[in-house]
Amino acid sequence: TLGTQTDYRDGEAQTDPYSPEYVVHSGSVPEILTLATLTWGRGLPAGQAEMEIIDRIREKRAWEAALPPMDSPSNTAKRLKMMEAMERKEWAYREEEIDKLQKVQLEVFRKLLQRREENQNELNAIRLYNQWQNHQKAKEEKIRKIQRDCALMLRKLIAKSKNLMGKLERRDIIKEYNDFSSQTYAPLSRMGFFPDNNSDYYAVKNFYLNTFAGLCELEKSVPDSVSQLKIKAPKPKCTITKTGYIKKAGRLDAVLTQVHQ
C-alpha cells in the first residue's frame, strides 16, 4: 500500500536482456545458435561487422553442405581441393582482418602520439612563458637597482662638487633658513624624519571649539575689550628714507632678528 522512490534511474539498474531457456531437437542445428557467443554490449545490437560475420557463417554452412561425400577417390580428391581453396580463402580473409586491425591500431597510436606532442608543446610553452616572466622580473629589479645606485652616486657627486677642496664647513643657519629646500623646511625621510607620522598631534580638539554649546559659552566668557579692538599702527623699527621707503639694510636687520628669535 506504500509507494517507494529510489535514488537511481532505471537505466542505471538495468541488467542484460533476458534470454529464455531453449531446447534443441536432436539432429537439428538452428542457425541462431551460431550467434550464442554474442552478448549485449559485445556484438549486440548487431552492426555492420556482425552482419558480415553472419553472412560468412551462412556462406560456410552452404559450403559445408555442398562438399562431396568421401565415398570414392575422385570425390575425396575433389573434397580435399575444395577444402584447400577454402583454407586459402580463410587465410586471405584473416590477413585482411589483421591489416585492418593494424591500420586501426596505427591510427590510434598516431592520435595518441599527436595528443602527447600537443600536451608536451603546451607544457613547454607554459614553462618558457614562466621562465620569460622570471627573467623579466629579474631584469626590472636589476634596472631599478641600477637606477637607485645611479641616483645615489649622483647625489654623492653633487655633494662632493660643492666642496671640491675637501674643507670642513660649519653649519650656516642663516643659509639654511634662507633656502626653503633645506633640511630645516623640507627634511628628508632618509635622515629619520617621517612627516606622515603623528600628523594629528597638533590638531586642536576642544569642547569649546567643536560643539555649538561650547562656542556659546566661550563667547559669553570673552570680555568686551576683545570684541572692541583699538589698534594702533606700529612705528617702523627700520630706518626710513626721506621718500618713505625702508632701506635694504633695515630690511635685512629685521629678517635676521626674526630668524634669531
UniProtKB/TrEMBL annotation:
Top-level taxon: Eukaryota
Primary localization class, coarse: cytoplasm
Compartment list: Cytoplasm, Cytoskeleton, Cilium axoneme
Keyword rRNA processing: no
Domain CFAP91: 4-156
GO CC, any one term: axoneme
InterPro entries: CFAP91, CFAP91_dom
This protein's UniProt keywords: Cell projection, Cytoplasm, Cytoskeleton
Matching Pfam families: CFAP91
Matching PANTHER family: CILIA- AND FLAGELLA-ASSOCIATED PROTEIN 91
Family: Belongs to the CFAP91 family.
Protein name: Cilia- and flagella-associated protein 91
